[in-house]
Specification:
297 residues, elongated, 12 helices, Rossmann fold, alpha/beta, 45% helix
Length: 297
């Protein structure tokens, strides 16, 4: 199933230009409508300064539309310049505008922490039901290697479905990590190394079986994808696996609003958001694109 509509959220910066180029590549690959959206905050200082002039909002909108067109080179995107609350307008544009994907730009390496934890971006990814692509790399080439980080939750199942649906021509790698934290607690309690090693081996084998069953339930042959089970500390181990694979896109389940702070920030995804060098796609369990039977694709 192809994407039908992509919303590119732009703040008219260089990072938004990178996201625009990726949005163009995806729109052309899927034959999707592309909408490029910029929001001018109602209380923006420059807007207030021109408030006494006629059609001051129109002046800002015309200038921003011109910049939006430049951010999606070679493609006729539909520019929309809105005035209001940035979060509310962008979430509404994606969730209620029939978008399959919301594309955002992140700054270069070492800047994701500040960008992601900033008010606008944090609220966007935690409030929007639409799958959200955070673009780190400046490339207009199709994704070649895609990693789906799997913890067997419903949202990681939705992440796998999105990866299959949209990036079916790429190498698909599923990565699961058996957390060593429980083994550390056993060791601290004085349990012998031989038992701990035996327990780890048992958990690894169970995880391999569960991962195989997971992909089969989604209508995939285990031989058609790469299945990797590692033992370690999840955030570090996933980062190492992504680097070893050379993935240019990582797909993660996103638990969404209400559970974001407890589940995502301070966990595996938060570490990936801070340190990963590839693009990152966050998919919620309740995303419109997550519905349906995986075996039907």
């Amino acid at each position: 199933m192809s994407m039908k509509k992509i919303v590119h959220a732009s703040d008219l910066s260089d990072r938004a230009g990178r996201a625009g180029r990726r949005a163009v590549q995806l729109a052309e690959a899927h034959g999707a409508e592309l909408e490029s959206v910029h929001v001018i905050e109602t209380d923006a200082p420059a807007l207030r300064a021109l408030s006494s002039s006629p059609d001051h909002e129109g002046v800002f909108q015309a200038a921003a539309e011109q910049q939006l067109q430049a951010s999606t080179p070679g493609h006729k995107a539909n520019p929309r310049v809105l005035i209001g609350d940035t979060i509310g307008e962008l979430v509404y544009a994606a969730d209620h505008g029939g978008a399959d994907l919301l594309v955002l730009g992140a700054q270069g390496r070492h800047y994701v922490r500040d960008w992601m934890l900033g008010t606008t971006a944090e609220q966007l990814v935690s409030h929007a039901r639409t799958p959200t692509l955070v673009v780190r790399r400046d490339s207009d080439a199709a994704y070649r290697r895609v990693v789906v980080s799997v913890d067997f939750s419903a949202c990681s199942r939705a992440a796998l479905r999105a990866a299959r649906r949209w990036f079916g021509d790429a190498e698909l790698h599923l990565v699961h990590v058996v957390d060593n934290a429980e083994l550390d607690r056993m060791q601290a309690a004085g349990i012998g190394d031989s038992y701990i090693q035996e327990q780890q081996g048992r958990w690894m084998e169970e995880a391999r079986d569960e991962l195989t069953a997971f992909v089969q339930e989604e209508g995939l042959s285990p031989e058609a994808v790469s299945l990797e089970v590692h033992a370690g500390y999840p955030a570090i181990t996933v980062l190492e696996a992504v680097g070893s694979i050379g993935a240019d896109l990582v797909v993660l389940g996103n638990h969404g609003r209400g559970r974001w702070a407890n589940v995502l920030l301070g966990s595996v995804a938060a570490r990936l958001l801070r340190e990963i060098s590839s693009d990152l796609l966050l998919v919620r369990e309740d995303a419109p694109s997550a519905a349906g039977d995986g075996a039907a694709w």
